[in-house]
Amino acid sequence: MFDSRLMGADTARLAALPGASLAPWRYDDAVLPGDGMLPVLPALRGLLPGGGLRRGSVVATGHWSLLCLALAAGPSAAGAWCAAAGLPQLGVRAAAEAGLDPGRLLLIADPGPGWPQVVAALLDGCGIVLLRPPDRPSAQLRRKLEAAARRHGSVLLVAGEWEGAQARLLVTRQEWDGIGAGHGRLRARKVQVVADGRGAAGRPREQWLWLPGPDGAVTAVAQDIAEQDDMARWGRGSSGPAGTGISRVSTG
Amino acid sequence: MTPPRSPRRVLVVRCPGWPGAAGWPGIAGWPGIAGWPGARDQESASGARAFEQVVHAVEAFCPQVEVLRPGACAIGVRGPARYFGGEDELARKIAEAVRPCGFGCQVGVADGLFAAELAALAGPAGRIVAPGETPSFLAGHPVAVLGITDLADLLPLLGIRTLGDFAALPAAEAVSRFGTRGELAHRLARGLDPRPLVPRPPAADLSVRQEFDPPAGQAEPVVFAAKALADQMHDRLAASGLACVRLKVQVTCEDGRQISRLWRHDGLLSGLAVAERVRWQLDGWRTAPGGHGGPGPAGPGNGRPGRPDGRDADPGDGVQPGGITWLQLIPDQLVRAGGRQLGLWGDAVVSDRVARAALRVQAMLGHPAVTRPVPAGGRSPAEQVLLVPFGDHDVPRLPPDRPWPGQIPGPAPATVFPVPLAATVTDRSGQAVTVTGRAQESAPPARLSADGQPAMAILSWAGPWPVTERWWDPARARRKARFQLVTEDGRAWLAVLQDGRWLAEASYD
User: Of A121, A174, A19, A66, which Cα lies nearest the Cα of B353?
Assistant: First the structure.
């Protein structure tokens, strides 16, 4: 939509999704592949139990980042509608580059004090709802919204903390590529994403991703490069506390 | 030139020699008009104002006057003629009423506007063509009076010189040889209206309403009544072969307050769907924060009904203190029922389910609260997206498919601050970093503080990328220099220096 180049990339990515055909551009429950599972971008499959977003589940990402958009991109590319509530800062172009279809995106910049009703209404209509809660939701409210997601078979993707989320993904380390001291530009970012969750998702998984890659797309970092870099940059034990994600910049 | 509809007998009043009167188009050679001095050179706006006196005089005879142009107006003649004692008498009285205004007056009566106007020109005081004699009256006129230039040139070459000759042609031949304009001309020549009558959708009141006595304190009875009302309204519309584009739901409270909202209908909503929207409207009203739950001046265009929280009414059970006394459904923008319309929201087909959710949220927060992004043109990340309220169709002023030199290349930032954050960027010595006219930074940026947060060390940076936008327009001209900065917490920023102030436009989280 933003770039003709992207259409090709989208199509290729879409074709790579399991069971996805190019036909279901219109959202309809019946045509989405995988009963009970919304497809995600191939790079993210390893991070999620079952290799996709389970319908009716809640997924938390700690805070707002491109990771939220990347998670929503797979279902959107497969034909689901996506709504974003409480995220006026959502970069639509970045979303499009990650694979999310802006034509099937609803933005509710400020859901106001009645945000739980807004989110419940959105869960009814959209396959995936991005939410940054304006305040810390009570346990009762959380249960209500979880029930709404289950009832409508949609996924609530929280850009924040959500106790009881089925899966939780966090960016633990990040590193920008292509920029130096006064030269170059931001080209790509390599991040380490760690996922855990409840039940089957309990075992922590981790994955190195290009988030974004040089063309804005989200892909997995080849295993050997990741390990090599990991050893070289992070393995010395003096790289600060885990999770701070201090950036070391290579001047490529 | 639309003829008056129901009365086919038409009376035309024209003032010969009217300044600025356009005359009959395309008949310069026709006697009676050629001699008008400078008829086309005059200013017509003043003429239009002066002609008001004449129209006013004619209005005394018939309130519905169609002003054809300054210098000519028309009325339907049937009713006034009966009242004033015949067409001749009416024409005489009108001429008498107009002459005191200081203008000459010709009055013509015939079947249809075209013939009536020619009849007005037919003599010094006009002429009255008896009913049914219009075709023979027209037959003697040259084809040039049709006012269709190419036909006026062509028909005499074919040996057809008068309207009578032309009317003698079979209608089908006229259409097949001369197209739709030929058909129109042929109908005129035969003394018919230029096209079959197309009555406009009736102005009849198709709204439906229900009173609640005693006032309804709960939403349920109102919603229940809404379904029955909607069915009733749909039946009425269907009986007239109409559909409405929008539906206005108006709820009146016991204390006189009104809440009304417009819903897009397009003839697609069932009675149940209308009832659902009434429920959302009431829900939105009830759950709106503040006071008595009233949204104030509600409407599709108003903002969010947000007010400082001062709720004293129990938000849970009742609809309103006072209750609801009237529910009214008003069909808006009537159109002929022509089946479903699709694609109202642009390219992607919006499924009913998504539309319902979006409308529901719009009922709670107001129409502009739910938006869809549309790509737009610009250099900063915020300019590249236009947010269009759901249900509207808006086209960006600046097209996105232009080169936009000076855009920041590479991956787009995931976080675009709706309002850029104030920032400070300092060099190693604590001095604010500036950029010279030659796009040279004063010193390497060393620390960034955005939005009042503690300063962070800058590990790497790139820039400046200078942009001079709209230098030709002093009001909107801007000079900027953009930097990409990576801070010690790993975040990457897009910062811009404009008029000596640093702003964080976006971050690449």
Answer: A121
Give the predicted TM-score (pTM) of the model: 0.55
A37 lies in the same domain as A135: yes
Q: In whole angstroms, what is the distance from residue A26 CA to residue B353 CA?
A: 12
State the smallest CA–CA distance between residue A68 and chain B in angstroms: 10
Chain A residues whose CB is inside 8 A of the B349 CB are 26
**Domains identified in chain A, total number:** 2
B234 touches chain A (CB under 8 A): no
Nearest residue of chain B to residue A185 (CA atoms): B462
- For the stretch B47-91, pLDDT in tens is 555 677 787 788 788 777 776 666 778 888 888 888 888 888 999
Q: Report pLDDT digits (tens) over B101-140.
A: 777 888 999 888 888 888 888 888 888 888 888 888 888 8
A48 and A145 co-located in one domain: yes
Cβ-Cβ contacts under 8 Å for A35 (sequence gap 6 or more): none
Q: Could you tell me if A69 and A127 lie in one domain?
A: yes
CATH (residue range B208-363): 3.30.1490.100
Partner-chain residue, chosen from B361, B375, B415, that has the shortest CB–CB distance to A2: B375
Taking CB atoms and an 8 Å cutoff, what residues of chain B touch A5? Answer: none
A126 and A193 assigned to the same domain:
no
Going through B15-97 in order, the beta strands assigned E by DSSP cover 66-69, 72-76
Locate tokens 């917490």: which residue? B489
What pLDDT, in 10s, does the model give residues A180-199? 888 888 999 999 999 988 76
ipTM (interface predicted TM): 0.77
The answer to whether B303 faces chain A, any CB pair under 8 Å, is: no
Same domain, A109 and A183: no
Give contacts of A96 with chain B, Cβ < 8 Å: 412
Ordered by start, the domain boundaries in chain B are 9-189, 208-363, 370-401, 415-507
Q: Which residues of B touch A251 (CB under 8 A)?
A: 460
Domain shared by A149 and A180, yes or no? no
Alpha-carbon torsion A154, A155, A161, A162, what sign? positive
CB burial of residue A247 (10 Å; 0-12, 13-18, 19+) = buried
**Domain B9-189 class, CATH top level:** alpha beta
Residues A47 and A123 in one domain: yes
Size of interface A-B (CB pairs under 8 A): 203
Range of the domain at A41: 4-158
Neighbours of A219 (CB within 10 A): 17
CB contact under 8 A, B370 and A106: yes
